[in-house]
Amino acid sequence: MNAANIPMGLFQLGILVATTNAMRTLTHEEMIAALRRHHSGDWGDLTDADKAANNTALVDGSRILSIYHTANGTSFWIITEADRSVTTVLLPEDY
């Protein structure tokens, strides 16, 4: 993936990576669309408490997690590490 495809957002994404399983399961377009949402603060299908934790993470620098679903219902996660060095696209079973 290429960070050039992701416009400036609320925080640094760092290096963009995806697990092998995510690369096999998700389309490039699904990953890029979700990364844009993640980067803009649309945390996807999180609980209100987890959304609040992400909003706090924007200030205190902790890890940021978003959960999205493909059109066919496949759940996948995006995690940006606390130090903002890496953002990973993965399926829940890859964690």
Task: Write a structural description.
- This protein is of the alpha+beta class and 95 residues long.
- The protein has one domain (3-94).
- The chain has helices at 20-25, 28-40, 48-60, and strands at 15-18, 64-69, 75-80, 86-90.
- A four-stranded mixed sheet has the order 1-4-3-2.
- The longest helix is centred in the middle third of the chain and has 13 residues, at 28-40.
- The radius of gyration is 12 Å and the shape is globular.
Q: Which properties best describe this structure?
A:
alpha+beta
| Large-scale geometry | globular
Estimate the strand proportion.
15-25%
- Describe the strand arrangement of the main beta sheet, using strand numbers: 1-4-3-2
Cα-to-Cα separation, first versus last residue: 20 Å
Task: Return the string of H and E elements.
Answer: EHHHEEE
Using the CA coordinates, give the radius of gyration.
Answer: 12 Å
Number of helical stretches of at least 4 residues = 3
